[in-house]
Structures are given as structure tokens and as C-alpha cells.
Amino acid sequence: DLSKLTQMHALAPSLIAEDQGRLCGYAISMPVETRALVPVLGPMFDQLKQLSLGRYYVMGQVCVAKTHRGQGVFDGLYKGHRELYSKTFDNIATEIALRNTRSMRAHERVGFRIVHRYRDATDDWAVVAWDFK
Question: How far is it, in rounded angstroms, from Cα 128 to Cα 16?
Fold first, then answer.
């Protein structure tokens, strides 16, 4: 909800992409401190803690409008994250369902690598991280 997004943004601003004043993409920043705001993600944060990623934050969600896909918006959002956060964090991490091949390829293209795989009741997952060093 908007209240939680506002609190998350206060901890680590998320990035948006605009085209002529219209929102065409966003990438939500979730530092470890946001765990309390989204309790359902507790197991993910527990798992990330075990992976020795150093100072990391989570990509809560990245979304690009269908009208703007294939135009570099995704890469630009992540470039912005790297520019904004590479001095504060060592890594950015996220989870992707392995069946989401489009997202897996896009994250690999910008520099993410698989650091862990697991299966839960809903899917097979890849935990991916992008080392800012």
C-alpha cells in the first residue's frame, strides 16, 4: 500500500522512468530495514542473510510498461540503481521464478548472477545478485 511504499522510499528511494511526464517503469528498493514492513518476505531476507552478500538491498520489484519494453528502460533503471547505491551497498539481490525466462535473461544481461536456487510450495526460484564492485 502507499503508506508502506512511502516508508520504504524514505529508507532507500526507488527509481522511476518517465517518458514525456508519464510513468513507464519503476524499480523498488528494499534495504534490510524494510523487512518489518513486508513480513511475508521474512523468509527471503533470512535466506539472503545466509548467502554472505555483504551490504545488500533487495530489488522489491521492477516493472516496465509494455509500451516501453525493449527500449532500454529496464537496463536504465538498474544503471540508475548502481549509480545511486554502489557506494552504500555491495550487492543488489532479488528472487526470480526460474520459469520467468524473460526476467532471468534481462537480469543476467545487466550483470546479475545466480547465487542460490531453491524450491518452495509455489515454484522453483533463483536468488540472483549483482555485485557492485
Answer: 21
